[in-house]
Protein: Flavin oxidoreductase
Organism: Shewanella colwelliana
Amino acid sequence: MVNQTIHIDQNQLSSLEHRYRAHLVNSLSGFKSANLIGSVSELGQTNLAIVSSVIHLGADPALVGFISRPHSVARDTLSNIIATSCYTINQVNSDIWQQAHQTSARYETDQCEFDAVGLTPAYHEGVLAPFVAQSRLKYAVKLESVETIALNQTLLVIGSITDILLDDMALKSDGSVDIERLNSVCVSGLDSYHRTERLGRLSYAKPDKPLTLIDDY
Amino acid sequence: MVNQTIHIDQNQLSSLEHRYRAHLVNSLSGFKSANLIGSVSELGQTNLAIVSSVIHLGADPALVGFISRPHSVARDTLSNIIATSCYTINQVNSDIWQQAHQTSARYETDQCEFDAVGLTPAYHEGVLAPFVAQSRLKYAVKLESVETIALNQTLLVIGSITDILLDDMALKSDGSVDIERLNSVCVSGLDSYHRTERLGRLSYAKPDKPLTLIDDY
């Protein structure tokens, strides 16, 4: 059987049923990171929200961003971050992927997602926001900027990384982290979770020089 | 053996050797998408660049972004996109991950990455920029906006999706795409590539209702 290529043009795309289009377009960008964002209100109410849009923005200074909609289920998270300027980002692993997904339910503001889904808050000196005890790579972030994307009013929330907490088995001699060994998962579309299997690490690419596999595993 | 948690604070982070810090901080955001961006100059010179920062920004309108540095290896890509307002995004799969990585070498502006790495340009009516023939999920994008992130002068390049080309075997009845079946890969850190294995799809989360697995595979 020969595979066929489907072509969907912009007119067809804009006339698709709302939920169908959401599934389709969310699949186009490829695999996404799976992270839990921990935060706390000025009154001390903790909040935990899964986010698949965390993105590396720079190493020096160490900056990380994520996309938020003003009226999304992450509304408490966003309010907390703006109020306290502090949050944590916790990689989701294959032991907690279902609990992580459950944090996307629209709990009431006064309900704590940690309790509701069965994850454990953990605190670190000097960091106001809660970490997820079950996450094996996590870091505290200080809010630096909230940029509004005028085209659709989504927000790019940017913070600087202040404290990294990391399972030592995964840190390699060159500074890279073997997040596969931490069983970190990735997401595709709106609701599909995946574990990974390494194809390989590749050397820094140069013109007219063949790539080599970095064999440190 | 008990795993130890390493703590790295902001002072330690900023004093790390440049390359070590780049590896470390690039590992923190989690798994990243692997995409090739195809573009063409006003003079007709094609360009192809791997990007691990493509991110979903919205489904209606369908918007996609990626992060670029003004002086990165993607400099020809950025010039082309600004000159022509048209580019393509092509998911990298396990048949072409090494060729895809090789596009990150600093080729001269007049050298075509398609030829240099052994990938095939493919054209579609109405789309100026080249697609990658070997990619099984790809789409044309019209430039909408280039936002400068003031904190580190990186750019968020935002475009609207105009034409989707997709292997039909991967499109599910609800609009989601089984990108794992297309052998799409993901990236961790600066240079590690991974294939995936599905843990499951999960139902839309609601408070006080258990999640169910969506069993359509």
